[in-house]
Amino acid sequence: MSRLRPTRGFTLIEVLVALVIVAIALGAGIKAAGALANNAERLAEVSSAQWCAENLLTELRLTQQFPDIGETPFACEQLGRSYSGKLKVSPTPNPLFRRVEASVANDQGRPVLGLSTIMGKF
């Protein structure tokens, strides 16, 4: 009768299964890191566009002039990025107030942000 020796080590199948598991985990990690980088870039773009719109609306408030009804284009640069936009002033039911909307687009013309407020007559 022969004795069976206990086997030591891993079989080829076990090693391949472990490699597949590691490859899937690494792939998921790389995808998550890419998504985080894209989200950070988008946040920087939206924040810069919001600063542009808020600066424009604050400038309107500080001039203390009642804005004229209509659309006016504007340009802005924040954090080394160029933005273009449109300032739209429309009437409200109360003639002492106007609705002011600032729409900001990136340098490729894609809309990034829209900000609106109500301004009263000083």
What is the string of helix and strand elements?
HEEEE
Low-confidence stretches: none
Distance between the termini: 107 Å
> Which term fits the overall shape?
rod-shaped
Mean pLDDT: 90
Number of strands: 4
Q: Fraction of residues in helices?
A: 40-55%
- Biggest sheet: strands, sense, closure? 4 strands, antiparallel
**Strand residues, percent:** 25-35%
* Corresponding CATH architecture: 2-Layer Sandwich
CATH superfamily annotation: GSPII I/J protein-like
What's the Cα radius of gyration? 29 Å
Number of discrete helical segments? 1
Strand order of the largest sheet: 1-2-3-4
What is the fold-level CATH name, i.e. the topology? Answer: Pantoate--beta-alanine Ligase, Chain: A,domain 2
- Number of discrete domains: 1
Q: What is the SS-derived class?
A: alpha+beta
**CATH class designation:** Alpha Beta
Determine the oligomeric state from the structure: single chain
Give an account of the 3D structure:
With 122 residues, this protein is of the alpha+beta class. The chain has one domain: GSPII I/J protein-like (Pantoate--beta-alanine Ligase, Chain: A,domain 2), CATH 3.30.1300. The protein has one helix and four strands; from the N terminus they run αββββ. Strand 3 and strand 4 form a beta hairpin. The protein is rod-shaped, with a radius of gyration of 29 Å.
Layout of helices and strands, plus pairs?
Layout: H1 12-63, E1 70-78, E2 81-91, E3 97-105, E4 111-120
Name the descriptors.
single chain, 122 residues, 4-stranded antiparallel sheet, 1 helix, 4 strands, 43% helix, 32% strand
